[in-house]
Amino acid sequence: MRTVDPTIILLAIIGVLYLVTLGVILKRRSVREWPVGLLVLYVVVSLLLTLGAPGFRLGWPPFLAADVLERVLLHGLLLLSLLFLHVGRSFLRLGGAGWGWWALGVAWMAAAVALNGNLVSLPEEVWAGNGRTLVVRPWTVQRQGLGLGVLVLGWGVFMGGAAVLTVRGYRQTQQPLHRNRITYWSLALGLTVVGGALLFTGRDLLGAGLHLLGVLGVAYVLLTYRLPDVRQMGRQVASYLIIALLTAIIYAGGFLLAEYVLQSVPGYNPLLLGAVLALGLALLLDPLLSLLQRLVSGLISGPGYDPRRTLREYSMSISNILDLERLGMVAVGLISEAMDVRRGTLFVVHYENGEHSEADGTGRFRLRSVRGMGKRVPSGVLAFESPVATYLRLKQHPLTQYDIDLLPRFQRIAPEERAWLDSLDMDVYVPIYAKGEWIGLLGLGPKASGDRYFDDDMTLLSTLADQTAVALQNARLFDDLKARNTENERLNEELTAANCELARLDQAKSDFIDIASHELRTPLTQVQGYSDILGEMIQEQTLVPESGLQLVQGVRKAARRLREIVDLMLDVSQLDTETMVLNAAPTSVGLIMNMAVDNWAASLEERQQTITVEGLSNLPLVTADGKRLKQVFLHLIQNAIKYTPDGGQIRIIGRHLGTDDLPEEQSVEVVVADTGIGIATEDLGRIFQKFYRTGDVMSHSTGRTKFKGAGPGLGLTMARGIVEAHGGRVWAESPGYDEDTCPGSEFHVILPVQPRCLDSIGLDPFMAAVRAEHRQAFPSLQ
Ligand code: ADP
After folding, report:
1. 294 contacts: CB under 8 Å, gap ≥ 6
2. Which of 444, 730, 780, 781 could be a cystine partner for 344, CB 3.0 to 4.6 Å?
3. Residue-wise pLDDT tens digits, 156-167
4. Ligand 1 in reach of 638 Cβ (< 6 A)
5. Would you say the CB of residue 644 lies under 6 angstroms from ligand 1?
6. How far apart are CA 111 and CA 147, in angstroms?
7. What is the rounded end-to-end Cα distance, in angstroms, of the chain?
8. Helix H segments across 349-425?
9. How far apart are CA 273 and CA 703, in angstroms?
10. Parallel, antiparallel or unpaired: strands 610-614 and 649-657
C-alpha cells in the first residue's frame, strides 16, 4: 500500500483552512470594498500556493519540472509580499492607491521572471571574480542563484516596506485603540515574515503553518472592529502569573516552615500538616487573593481612581459654577486628574434652525469650544443629519474617535466635519443632555498612560456628563444673560451717541434760528427801509429817476446779502447733516483760483488792494468738485479783502507737495496771505467753529467799523467742511491781532491729488466751462 507523506496531508489541511477563512471573509464583508478585495486576493494566492506545494511533492502537474514548479511557488511568495504591503497600506488608511509600490512590484516580478526563465539568455555563470588562485575559490555568481536572490530581495523589500509603514503608523497615532489594532497587525506581520522566511529556506510545513497564522491574524484584524486590548491582556496574564507564583510560594514556604518546626513534635504527621495547611489556605484564599490582586494590579497598572470619590468630588465642585469658562476648566480638570488625561475641552452645543424648521433636518449644531485643558481647540459645526450629530443626539453614550474612524456608519461624514474632528485630536466624546436635549459635549484626549478608555471609564464619564447637565444649563443661561447685557450696553452707547447727535443737530437748528434772526434782520430792515422810502416818494410824487435808481440798488444789494447768508447757512447745514454731494473730477486748482480772483476784481479795485498769484499754473490736477472748491477760494479771498485795510496786499501761493513716485501721497497746498489786521493766537483754532466771530458778535455785522460786510461766522466753517470732504486740511496762521500794525494772516489749504474718499468721474461740465472761459486769458494752460 502506498503511504502518503504526512506533510502533504498537513499542507492540504492548511489549504482547507484557507478556504474556510475565505468563506468567512466573503460572508462578512463585500469584496467591493478595496481592503477586503485585496485581502481576498491575498488569501486566494496563499491558498493556491499551499495547494501547489503538495502537488509539487507528488510530482503534479506532470508537465512541469519540479524545479520550475518550485520557482513558481517562490514567485508566488514575492507576489504575496506585494499584496501584503498593499493590504497593510489600506489597513493603516494611508491615502492613495500606492501606485509607486505597484509599479515597483510589477517591475520586480518581471525582472525575477526574466532571470529565472532565462528570457534574457544570460550565461549560467553570470559573474566570476578575478584573482583565481589554487587555494581560494573565486566568488562566482550563478544565474540560478541570481534569480533566487532577486526573489528574496524583492520579498524583503516589500515586507520591509510593510514593516516601516506599520511602525510609522503606530508612531503617528496617539490613540490607544488604533495603537492596539496596529499591535495586532504587527503580530500578523511578524508571523508572515517568519513564515515566508521558512518557506524560502525550504521548511514548507512550518513556514506554511506560520503563514496561515499570519493570514488568520490579518483577516481577524481587518474584519474585527472591537479587538481585545493587548496591554490589558498582557497585564492580566502577568498579574495571574504573579498571583499564582505568590500563592505557591506562600503554600510551599508555610509547609516547609511548619515541617521544620513541627518535625520534632511527637506524633507529627506530614499528611495531616498538608491537610491543615490546605484548609488554612482555603479559608484565607479569598481575602488573600483579593489583597494580592489589589497589590499586583496597583503595581502593574498604576494607582487608578475611585469612581465614587471622583463622582462625589465632581458634583460638589461644579454645582455652583455659573461661568462657562470656569465650568469647562473645572469639569475637564477633575476628569483629567482622575483618568490621567492631558487634554480636554467642554463644548457648548447650540442648535441653529435650518431654512424651515427643526423637523426638516436642515438645521445644524454649533459646537462652541469653552476653555478646558491643554491647547484651545476650534469651535465647529455639525449638520443636523450628520452621522456624528445623530449618534451624539440620540445614543446618549460616549463616542470614540476610533468609532468615527472605523465604523461604516460614520464613513459618509462630511469632509469638513471629519477635518474638524481630526483637528481636535480627541480620544472620546461624551455628550451632555438636559431634559433629553443635547446641550454639551466633553471631548477628552488620550490618557497619559497610553491606555484606552475602558468600559468602566465610559460608564463613569456618562455619569459625570449627567452631573454636568444642570451646571451647564445654568452657565449657558448666565452666558446668554451676559451676552444680552453686553448687547444692551452696546445699544445704550449707540443710543447715547444718537442722543448726542440729536442734541448737536438741535443746537445747530437753534443756532441757525438765532443767527438768522440777527443776521437776516439787517438786510431785511434795509429792504424794508428802502421800499418804504420808495413808496413815500412815489406817493408824494417826489421820486426822481436818480434817487429811485439809488434806492433800488440799495434794495438789490440787501437782497443779494440775504441770499448769500441763506446760501451759506444751507451749505453749512448740508455739511452738518453730511448730505452735501460732491461731483469729483480732475480739476485745475489754478483755473479755479483765477476765477475766484476775477470775481473780486471790483472790490479789490474799490479798496485799492493788490493781489498776486504764484505757483498755481504748474500744479497737478486734483480730483475735486470744482464748484465747491471755488466757493472755498472765494470766501478766503473775500475774508482777506474784508480784514485788510485799503491799499493792502493779498498774495496767493501754490505748492506741490510729495514725490512723483507716490501719486496717492501727493497733494497741493494753496496759501492765501494778507496784510490785514491778523488773528489773535487763541482765535486761530476757533474761527473755523460755526458762528464764531472774533470781537463783539452783535456789533459784528456793521463790521469792525471800517471793514464792511462781516458775515455770520459761517464762511470758514463752510470752507473747512468742503476741504475736509475732499480729504484735505485747512488752517490759519497769524502773528496776532492788531488793527493798527496789521500783522496779516495766512490761510493754508491742503488738497490731496487723489483723495481716497472721492472717485474721479472725468472732467465735469463745470470744469469744461471754466477751461473754455479761461482759454484766452491763460493760453499757456492749453
Ligand atoms: P465771517 O462770515 O464772519 O467772516 P468767517 O467764518 O469767514 O466768518 O470768519 C470767522 C472769523 O475769522 C471772522 O469773524 C474774522 O474775525 C476771522 N477772520 C477770517 N478771515 C480773516 C482774515 N483774513 N484776517 C483776519 N481775521 C479773519
Report:
1. none
2. 444
3. 999 999 999 999
4. no
5. no
6. 9
7. 127
8. 387-394, 401-406, 415-424
9. 136
10. parallel
